[in-house]
Design brief:
heterodimer; A: alpha/beta; 3 domains; six-stranded mixed beta sheet; 20 strands; B: ABC transporter involved in vitamin B12 uptake, BtuC; two-stranded antiparallel ribbon; 4 strands; 2% strand
Chain lengths: 507, 337
Amino acid sequence: MAEPILIAKNISKQFPGVRALDDVDIDLMQGEVHALVGENGAGKSTLVKIFGGMYRPNSGSLFISGREVHFYEPLQSQVAGISVITQEFDLVPQLTVAENIYLGREPVLPIRLIDWKKINQRSTQILNELGMNISPTQRVEYLSVADKQMVEIAKALSRDFRVMIMDEPTATLNAAEVERLFKIIAKLRKRNVAILYVSHRLGEVFRIADRVTVLRDGKKVGTRAVKSLVEKDVITMMLGRELEEREVERIVSGVEQTEAVSVTDLNLQGTLDQVSFSLNYGEVLGCAGLIGSGRSELVRILFGITAGWEGEICVNNQPVQLKNPGEALKQGIFMLTDDRKTEGIFPDLSVLENVLINKVKTKTVWLGKLFIAQSTERNKYKEIQNYLSIQAHSPAQIISTLSGGNQQKVIFGRALVSQSKILLLNEPTRGVDVGTKMEIRELIRQLAHDGHAVLVSSSDIPELVKVSDRCLVLSKGRIIGILEGEKLSEDNIIACAVGHNRIGVGS
Amino acid sequence: MKRTSRSLGQTTGVKHISKGIRFLQLFENLGVPMLLVIILIIIAFIAPRFFIRTNLTNLLINSSILAVTGYGMTLALAREGLDLSVGSVQAFTACISASLLGVTNIPLTIIGTLLVGLLIGIINGLLISKLRVPPFVTTLGMMSIVRGAALLYTKGESVLITGHENYARLNSGRILGVPVPLIIALGTLAILYVMLRHTPFGRHICAVGGNESAAVATGLRIDRITIAVYGIVGMTAALSGVMLSAQLMIVDGTLGVGLELKAIAIAVLGGTSLSGGSGNLPGTLISALLLSTIGSALNILKVPAYYQYLTTGLLLIFALGLDTLRRILVNKIALRR
């Protein structure tokens, strides 16, 4: 490793009421992958935004190649050679790939017209370098998330840059896409680019990073060489204490296990094939499967979003049609979406309003249905807040100011308020920090213990092993196995999930 | 292990995408012209008198005047905005051109009138970009202000343009057999099309309209682009004012009522999305022809003129419905759910 390219010294950033960053130092070397980790709210995003020129620090200084720089707007950060790739892509969906790559720097002919030949040629060259075979004249809106990310990287490659900052780049990618990204990171490293890799996923950090800096509550805990650490050390640094890696308690349910949902010979054109299983009250049923296995469609059918299926679905031993989510809710079915930001929360409403959006069933007279009774609501909220241990300083707090984990708990609160007994949980701990993950898993067990029927659909296989009593494994629309007891292990789930096409499997 | 099964899924996905995209693009390019042809065929059966020469000339002139305003609206929509003041601006500038003709020659009259439109547009743009007043509110206010100005300027009376036969030729003249208004509409189309599709400025309009924060992050000068866009919208409205005054040769402050709605309708029907980021200028021209054709056919069938409001409204809603449908399809394709 050569010399540091980017040095940040004593960076502090104050927001009204919060000290987001407190005297943080960090330095990036040429050709190094430097991971930045910390729980939600630790200050990672703030630091990224300071590097990107979106925020200005209250104090502290930035040096690039030994020279001090000040960023007043994003453009200055780009000119200085920093490229930031965030989760919300800075792409214009209606423009083509090439136009996006060269936005604001279009090569022009002498008469100020865009030189299409040059712009498309150059873009193709960059895309080829990245191993992408998309056309530069394709409109970005038609691309998958992973491809959009590649266009972002191509955009950075098209100009001279020395530092690339990636904010949770793998959050929405599947396994193959993650591999492709890692290959590109390796290439960039060879070119002596410094990469700041911000991630929740410690597994990735240990795979690709050289050094790791841990933030906690806006302060830097330390920077270490990854080789000298194990995952547990990093978690301890992040939490400031040792994570009690206790097994989530398997509470043997006190409730008589009666059937909540039974699915018989469920078919959906091209996605599900003769799916049959049952879900009981008082149990957590896991659901595993790769993308494209029909896992998400199965849950969407049960919540009445996807129509056009054949077969029989019984809820409480009564056959049901489930034409729309409203009907599913009436049957006592609740679904937790896997896309909290766009389908889950109402970002501008308070925590209380977000909980009560599915109206409270109270025994008030008819007028009471029109007006929201403050006291009943608040009592209900207190009850729920205690049950879920939501960390909000008041029910009137705007939900988007909470951490991801707490937002998730608020949505769980919605399920409780609606008194749904059957819970369909999609990726319940996605975008949730390590500490809260544990709490949510315990909460899921608690809900089952209290008599709910819980279906957990997750791509996080260790999580399924930890929380579920039984686990369905789907592959290509079919149930390959229902694992329980001793057999419920990570290895078995993975073997089942991919077992269907063992031929040609590389490893 | 996972990679194998995934890449299998992807190949089928890609195939599906290109098919979907091809269908969408075909629909975007050919939808409105096909609709126009169908309507013309129907008219041929129920109102053959539609095809007499004077009617067709009138139709082309009316569509040309409408299309010119529509171009400006298309740009405003591409910038993810809209301009409700175009009808008032058309009336005001028509009156301005009438009185300028009294004091100066025709070229200076046209230039002066366009400058007035540009100025109003720039004020719109300044309010929208610098004061952050939403385009809807800004231009709604401007619609009322300019309408008032037009009525005050003419003291509520009609102004007759007399003794300017050359000015009337802007409307009735023909070059190589093509009516002058159509030539103006086609010429404006050519200039604006090249500007929107082939210059950095035009692409930046779409970029700002498609994803403003991305445009900011790339260092585009959002405010300048916005002001320029509304300036152009004002100019196109003024140009249509000139064309209208040459057609009528008698102007007053009540011209162009409801023009904004027609302009939005033809722009959206022509394939320009209300969500910004793209503008289909040729589509706007063809939709202007479509709207005027329907109006003219209703006229010939002796359907009261009031029904034209109905058709405009219906077309607008229909076009918006199609736009939403298109967006849903795009999302489906991109998400591959």
